[in-house]
Amino acid sequence: MENKFHPETICIQGGWNPQKGEPRVLPIYQSTTFKYETSEQMARLFDLEDNGYFYTRLQNPTCDAVAAKIAALEGGVAGMLTSSGQAANFYAIFNICSAGDHFISSSTIYGGTFNLFGVTMKKLGIEVTFIDPDASEKEISAAFKPNTKALFGETISNPGLTVLDIEKFARIAHNHGVPLIVDNTFATPINCRPFEWGADIVTHSTTKYMDGHATSVGGAIVDSGNFDWNAHASKFPGLTEPDDSYHGLTYTKKFGKLAFITKATAQVMRDLGSSQSPQNAFLLNLGLETLHLRMPRHCENAQKVAEYLQSNPKVAWVNYCGLENNKYYTLAKKYMPNGSCGVISFGLKGGRDIAIRFMDNLKLASIVTHVADARTSVLHPASHTHRQLSDEQLIEAGVAPDLIRFSVGIENADDIIADIKQALDKAI
Ligand SMILES: *Cc1c(COP(=O)(O)O)cnc(C)c1O
User: What is the DSSP string of 199-263?
Assistant: First the structure.
């Protein structure tokens, strides 16, 4: 019902529809459990015969309202919250892959996701092949195997800032009878709605722009409801064949377009339990209420900062897809005509040591392991997140030793630029 409103209205009003005498603001249902009149009523919930709350690990009214808001923003049929972005990506894959299965992922993705896919999921018997997202359809198609179950990429990758050709990826996935899963964290549904370009499942680290104020780690999964699991039934037995842990219920038969999210909630969340706390969901909801106002300002400020850096002779290089000479400018304009995100990366002449001197002299921008915050934040991956790697290993990992990741906040752009200028003057 909410999908008919514009994103701005959904940001404010989506998810929570109070009835007569109920709180106007989404309440925090800080309760692990929910009361019933008869044993039979509760039993029906456990059998998925009725819809309702019984234990917050599975579902909670605060979390569900926020999940519904995010689903509406993405134009999907249903969503679920998770305790982190890591859990969202893990659950999205694990909901359709088990030991012996394979999936394909863009190689330019968030470092945590890269480890999850390449190291931890491998220990569970799920193999990944990483591909260059800019490779041709033919090259990417060559990575598919009979046991491949999904294709994965990030709309704008963190920290590489590559832009995904979503239509190309959707075409490749669908030609092979598998869904395209897109991590839409950096663009947010304000700037890009991957379902409109053929993606089937969207994931988020809500920790970033959605929360936006650096208060709560969280994640979300949204299903478009568009992927036809039954058309490829033998690939997805978990959805199309009876689930022994629910007396032989079949998700696609009983839940139709809601099959994927129902299984993710009723089975994967039930058993693995990375649920978001109602308190964090409440804070996330406050963030979402201004997402449509904050994203344009992040993009506007980032554009000004990127242009300033590009014109400064002390700067060796700048990577931001809003710059016309950027490799991804055209793709960014196609998928995100109103702006991409507020994250920029750049290098200074003089390299690594100068980068550190520059950062230590920043006053307004703070050194934190975080991006996509209302406050301007800065990180030097070679000294922080990737500090165990040698310069050669850093280059192999796609992280230049001099790379500074600069997450432009929503302060006044002139103040941010003045801070950069004074720090550059001290550093070089
Ligand atoms: C941060 C991030 C994640 C992981 O999210 P957490 O909330 O930190 O677990 C996943 N994907 C992208 C693109 C991210 O930026």
Answer: -SEEEEETTTTTT-SS----EEEEE-S---GGGGGGG-HHHHS-BGGGTTB-HHHHHGGGHHHHH
